[in-house]
Each structure stands twice: as C-alpha cells, then as structure tokens.
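Notes from the 1:1 (GR / supervisor)

We went over the backlog. Supervisor wanted to see one worked example end to end before approving the batch request, so GR pasted a single chain during the call. The sequence is below; no edits were made to it. Supervisor asked that the structure be written out right there so they could see what the output format looks like.
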Amino acid sequence: MIKKLFTGFFVLLIAISQESFAQKQFDEVLPIAIKPYFKNNRLNNVLNLTTQLINDTLSLNFKPLSIKDEYFKYCKYENFINVLPDTVWIKKKKNPIVDKHYKLVYNYKGVNNNMGNGYYTPLSDLLGKRFQILDVKISPKNNTFDHTNSIDIYMRCIQNGEEIIWRRKQYDNSEWGLESISLKTADRICKQELIGKIYYQKDDKDQYKKLEIIDCSYGINTDYFTPFLKIEFKDTVNKIITYNTSNSTAMFLTDEEYTVIEQQRINKLKESGHFEYILSKVIKPKNPQIRYGKTTQTQSTDELSKYLYEDNTVSILWH
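Structure output shown during the call:
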C-alpha cells in the first residue's frame, strides 16, 4: 500500500542556499542570563568573571580518592590562609617572643610539614566544606590569569564561620588533586535557564538532530580558572548524550536559529513550484471498516499540501 501511495506523487529534492546561521560552540549560544558566568571562556577576562562569584557558595571538587590511596599523603595545600593567624606555642613564657616562644600560623588548619620550614592544610580539613565568597581580588590587578599573578578568594566557612583566603595560582603543584569548584547560585541559574531548552546539531549525514537539555551543572576549572558546563541532552528517541564545554568542540544551533533555517528551506520549496514529500505520521484510521479509502488533501499552516491515505489498518500522512 505504501508503495502504491508513493508512486502517486512526484518527489523533487532541491538545493538549499547556504545557511544564515553557522553552528557555534555551546558557550557561544548560551542564554543571556548566564553569559556573565562565562566571561572568562577565552582566558582573558578573569576579572569580570570573578565579580559574578561574590556571595555565591563555593565547594571544592577533588579527584576521586580514598584516604587509603597512595597519593592521598601528597594532598597538602599551602594556599588556604587564615585571615587571623593561629598561635602555635613552642614554649610558653610570660613575655613571649614570636618565632622563639610561639609561631603565627597562617595556613588554614595548619599542620607542621615536619621539615622545619612551614605548615600546610590537610585535605581532610577541606573535604565537604562549603564557603561563602566574600570578595575576590587579583594581584597584580589585570584581566588575565597566568603565572605572573594570583586570585585571592576571601571566603567564610559555612559550617564553622572561619574566614580564610584561598590564594589560587596557576600551575601550583601544592594544589595537586584539586580539579574544580562548584558554585551553588551559578549552578541554579544555569539549570533554570537551560533545562528544557532545545538545540540542534548536525549528524554525520548532514541532517539536523534535535536535542533537549534534561540536566546540567556549572563549575570552574582551577587550572586557568575557566568556567564549564556539563550537560545531558536527550534526542528524539530518548538517547542520552553527555557534553562538557571544557573538552568538546561540538557545534550547535539554537532553536530560534534552526526555525529560521527551516523556514528558508520551506520558502525555497514554495518558490520552486515543487513540493517535497516525506512520511511523517502513521496512525489508526477513524473508520477501520474502510479499505483503501480515498486520498484526502489537507492544507498545512505553511501552505505546503498534506495528503492523507486511509485503509482499515493504518492512516498514512504525507506532506
């Protein structure tokens, strides 16, 4: 029956003009509300990015590990600094002298490194902690983040109220094991703006694939202090596709851009005086007693004809 129906129409595929919109990387097609959280996505605007973080809640994300892992002992962090130093007594005296009778330890939860030259913050005192960001300063102050400067993040521990400074330096070996940071408010805004959004991506057959965002999470890599999104897409057959803006060069169109391109395609078909027919729906007919019923014609909103053929098994719609 399908073959018989198909031969009743002339099928013409025509060339479409070049697209008005080029596909872009995902961080270039973001909703306006979350673009401020990606101001450093080209490594040269870190100052503008960090101003978005003040008052947000920060969590530190470490490489998956266990306290029994061999490299756990190397996770000793030197760049988490107390705003007010702790006092470590060497020998208590009535009129003590600093460095002779006591030391001022600026390292957060400072533990002696047993080498006589400093203290560090153990990983165990950072795991699971959440911090409110009070202020962010770059020294020397400029819009880049490289080996010549540092980012000072002033934070208050939500669990115990302690105030510390995280002095983040690029390529700092003392922060081995620390991968990224999460931000509560930024993540919530990204979820609000992105979940349910539709994007399109070309497949290997040069056809557009419709993708819906079903989940996402926002974070900042600590190496270059660059933001990223981890995204879960669902395609039209419910296949889950994962995507990370920090390590993928996949290209996308927004739903609005795709709509314009599709309308251009329809306009080309109209101008050509020909139509393109595809099978779009197969459903049960209204009257199952009719066998090889008449082909009916309906008119679509885009003014391209749709044809309906019915028998007692299925109803086939071509347009």
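Supervisor's comment: The mean pLDDT is 75.
Batch request approved.
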